[in-house]
Amino acid sequence: MPSGLLSPVLGQTSGTQPGRSVTSTHCDDRIARSLCAGALNVVSLHGCTTSRAGLPDGTQAVLVGGLNTTLKQYLMESLAAVGIQAEDASGSEGLGGVNPANIMNRTLLGQGAQLEITTPLRTVMFGTNTRAGRKNTTTQVFWDVVHAVRQAVGRIEAEQIVA
Questions:
Q1: Rounded to an integer, what distance in angstroms lies between the CA atom of residue 111 and that of residue 103?
Q2: Are strands 43-48 and 85-88 parallel, antiparallel or unpaired?
Q3: Can you give the pLDDT of all 163 residues of the chain as single tens digits?
Q4: Sheet arrangement for strand 43-48
Q5: What pTM did the predictor assign?
Q6: Would you give the distance in Å from CA 105 to the centre of its chain?
Q7: Residue 7: CB partners within 8 Å, gap ≥ 6?
Q8: How is the chain split into domains, by residue range?
Q9: Which of 31, 96, 127, 130 is buried deepest, with most CB atoms within 10 A?
């Protein structure tokens, strides 16, 4: 469940306060877990600051993590093809997506991919980067990311044999 959607009834806030989000390894949403458990491929989306990613301030980038190394590679290639800086998150403490308990690694294959989108990139993906404003202000950069992810997922699905 996106931390920005957590209800105050659940004891959570809008996700804008530090320490008030559900981490990918602590996701206990039954529907999300069920969807992942029945899928071959899962890509989870997260946001991070450039400092958390170990990148210079202002860097528009996506850190690509997860246990599915083929899907990771396809995502990095697809993102780069549309001009998005894609970095391997393997060496990034806490951003690599290598924990088997991570929601996107709870697939039929036991592996998935994780995208950590830096704040500067998220800012240019929307005309208004607020919870209320994002819905109707997507930019071409947003759609470039969407198409790159779809292309990578389509590529790996075309290679998978389902019996």
A1: 9
A2: unpaired
A3: 444 444 443 333 344 445 556 677 767 789 999 999 999 999 999 999 999 999 999 999 999 999 999 999 999 999 999 999 999 999 888 899 999 999 999 999 999 999 999 999 999 999 999 999 999 999 999 999 999 999 999 999 999 988 7
A4: 43-48, 113-118, 61-65, 85-88
A5: 0.85
A6: 12
A7: none
A8: 41-159
A9: 96
At position 20, the amino acid (one-letter code) is R
Report the C-alpha gap between 82 and 47 in whole angstroms: 20
**Top-tier CATH class for 41-159:** alpha beta
**Per-residue buried b or exposed e for 114-153, using 16+ beta carbons within 10 Å of the residue's own CB:** bbbbbbbbbeebbeeeeeeebeeeeeebbebbeebbebbb
Contact 160, 154 (CB under 8 A): no
